Amino acid sequence: MPAQPHPESASRAEVDEADKADKGDEAGKDKPGGARGVATAHGGSIAAVARRAGVSVATVSRVLNGHANVRPATRARVLAEVESSGYRVNELARNLRTAESRLLLTMVPDFGNPFYAEIVRGIDSVARRAGYFMLLCDTGADAGRERSYFDLLRRHRADGAICLDPATVQQANRMMADESQALPWVACCEFDPAVGVPYVGIDNFRAARDAVRHLIASGRRRIALINSDDHYLYAQQRRDGYLAALAEAGIEMRDAWRVNVNCLDYEAGAQAAAALMRLSREAAPDAIFAVSDTLAVGVLNGLRGARSRVPEDVAVVGFDDIALAAQVDPPLTTVAQPMRELGETAARLLLRRLADPQAQVPGVLLPHRLVIRQSA
Amino acid sequence: MPAQPHPESASRAEVDEADKADKGDEAGKDKPGGARGVATAHGGSIAAVARRAGVSVATVSRVLNGHANVRPATRARVLAEVESSGYRVNELARNLRTAESRLLLTMVPDFGNPFYAEIVRGIDSVARRAGYFMLLCDTGADAGRERSYFDLLRRHRADGAICLDPATVQQANRMMADESQALPWVACCEFDPAVGVPYVGIDNFRAARDAVRHLIASGRRRIALINSDDHYLYAQQRRDGYLAALAEAGIEMRDAWRVNVNCLDYEAGAQAAAALMRLSREAAPDAIFAVSDTLAVGVLNGLRGARSRVPEDVAVVGFDDIALAAQVDPPLTTVAQPMRELGETAARLLLRRLADPQAQVPGVLLPHRLVIRQSA
DNA sequence: CTGAAAGCGCTAACAT
DNA sequence: ATGTTAGCGCTTTCAG
């Protein structure tokens, strides 16, 4: 199989299949000093292949990497030897030599959340086509840690990074005001255009405003907002969109209707909804806008527990449009984010940055869309 | 910070923080031949640190790796230099030298599925404590590909692998009958005890039988099974458990009640349920056992569309007990799998194998549990 | 307790 | 078109 044809792909010849065991190796000559065979696995080295094929290591390397200047006959001979010996390139060595890990780091606050899972898929798909693999870090897994994930870049563990975690994005923006721009990373979903780090996301202000406008248009006046931590930029933007919609309709906003949660899981949504419905009859909301579908699904459950009907008593609007949104009862009206594209775009921006460190990579805003189902 | 105290952890001194830029580097001497500075990033090399600290590279290495034989004063001097220069070890070089990538490959059929997401978390948590990072591959992403993911092991891209994908597990068991036992990997959830590859999972036969027994105990007689591809071992085992429960109760099994789907998402469950309810009144089931909660959630939706009440008209039992199971309406009765532990155990087995390649790593079966909620 | 030096396996000059 | 060879940056003998 020759070099991969895909435009973005690294031009390395893939050495697939051929599962036979290796023939005699250089068998530890036991020279004095240095590590003996510590790194030598079953496959043999490129030198062993070269010797058996009767060519130099350079030629084997050229064949392996799909370089042009190799006579077909020679190439065939090398390939045959590779095939029969089951040789596999040692990427550890290749990586050191080329000074790249061909790994992309993806930092997620919680990949149990389907929203992030879908974005990660988008990242993975374009990364792989470009010959990169994905190092996945659940930043929520050890929240207490001081350690910076960006150190993984400095230590050459990954060539670039995509950060989906708002907390980590903010920490990065703060802690390395200048250096963060030097490190090859892009922010996804949470971003600060002012900082100069490439990003991709949506217009959270408008998206939230659209959602609340919809609620208002359908006659709701007592609209609650279940938001994530106001510390995050996207949370602030969505809150402002909510406030703007209320203001333009001349609707009063009550503090009791604004609740912040520090976790976006179902349980948090259910509890927030339950708390909201414990307000006195005249203070209880007739609509709830949750900034995440997982939260909204929990809200549906909390409302059920409070014996409130949706949408009759309380209308519910979610955010993201994860697959689950269409399955719950009632199906969720929600603000769709192009999750897949968010991930793909993030990866492409990063790849562009890696291909040309000088490149001026832009920030991009993708369109959102209000999906009206039956919960509002 | 000295060597990490954690029992499983690699004893490498962590070099955190210190974000200042590096001082003057060796500055490409431009010797003839060889690559000049191609791999030299901002941080400077260990040699530069050694020179500036007035010690040898060996000493710096010893300090960095928390070795004992270094005079406190020397250690302090090195640490100070590391700190002030913002030096970071180049793991590419370290990896080549030590012949390990310190990466664990995790193969998942679909990490959009919360079941797998939770297992992956379990893996990640123990892997990280042991100083490994996780390379995540969504095997469903490029299903058509012939390429073997196990090649990543042979190419030293990862030190070991955990496979959660039934298709890939079977392919591995088939394609490399002997070699698969040599490669450091463990099967999770889908496994064949006969093959000799370490594994962790549950007793699928018993779990399914328990679920169906529960249905029978609550008076159901017309029990449908929505299973995944019968090609998979776990699917066969669950089917057999279903059949056994039916047989021991002397209940007839109808072919029309057995449906196989090749995808475990909500939509597949909804469609399967809809199809089941299109059967004539006397042929329609009064209970549905779905082998995955995602399927079961879809079933709930499909049943709603068919105007069947749950559990009055049709009882539903799912499998896995993902967080969502408790949120839907009605809350799902399901067979709980210890997802987190499944992942943690898989990682521990693999780690044990890596620590001692000769070690006889066992197969382990974790307990399941029937969680009765309101759907059945 | 410290230093000198040998490579790990590979890629890419540079020569032929 | 092919071979020779110099390192990539690190860890680890082995000597002192």
Query: What is the makeup of the main sheet of chain A?
Result: 6 strands, parallel
Give the mean pLDDT of chain A: 88
Show unreliable segments of chain A: 1-10, 13-41
Task: Supply Rg of chain A.
Answer: 27 Å
Oligomer: homodimer
What is the strand tally of chain A? 12
Biggest interface, and residues per chain?
A-B, 73 and 72 residues
How would the global form of chain A be characterised?
elongated
Q: Could you say which structural class the secondary elements and strand pairing of chain A correspond to? A: alpha/beta
Helix proportion of residues of chain A, in percent? 25-40%
* SSE run of chain A: HHHHEHEHEHHEEHEHEHEHEEHEE
Q: Termini of chain A, distance in Å?
A: 55 Å
Helix count from the secondary structure assignment of chain A = 13
Strand order of the largest sheet of chain A: 2-1-3-4-5-11
Strand percentage of chain A, roughly? 5-15%
InterPro entries (chains A, B): HTH_LacI, LacI/GalR-like_sensor, Lambda_DNA-bd_dom_sf, Peripla_BP_I
Organism (chains A, B): Paraburkholderia tagetis
Domain HTH lacI-type (chains A, B): 45-98
Protein name (chains A, B): LacI family DNA-binding transcriptional regulator
Textual characterization of the structure:
2 copies of one chain form a homodimer. With 376 residues, chain A is an alpha/beta fold. The first copy, chain A, contains 13 helices and 12 strands. Chain A has helices at 46-53, 57-64, 72-85, 91-98, 114-129, 151-154, 166-175, 179-182, 204-217, 233-248, 266-277, 293-305, 339-355; strands spanning 103-108, 133-138, 160-163, 185-188, 199-202, 223-227, 258-260, 287-290, 315-320, 333-336, 363-366, 369-371. The first copy, chain A, has a 6-stranded parallel beta sheet. A 6-stranded mixed beta sheet of chain A has the order 7-6-8-9-10-12, with helices on both faces. In chain A, helix 1 (46-53) crosses helix 2. Chain A is elongated, with a radius of gyration of 27 Å. Mean pLDDT of chain A is 88; it is low at 1-10 and 13-41. At the A-B interface, helix 4, helix 5, strand 2, helix 6 and helix 11 of A face helix 4, helix 5, strand 2, helix 6 and helix 11 of B. Chain A binds a DNA duplex (16 and 16 nucleotides) through residues 31-40, 45-47, 55-59, 61-62, 64-65, 69-71, 74, 89-99.
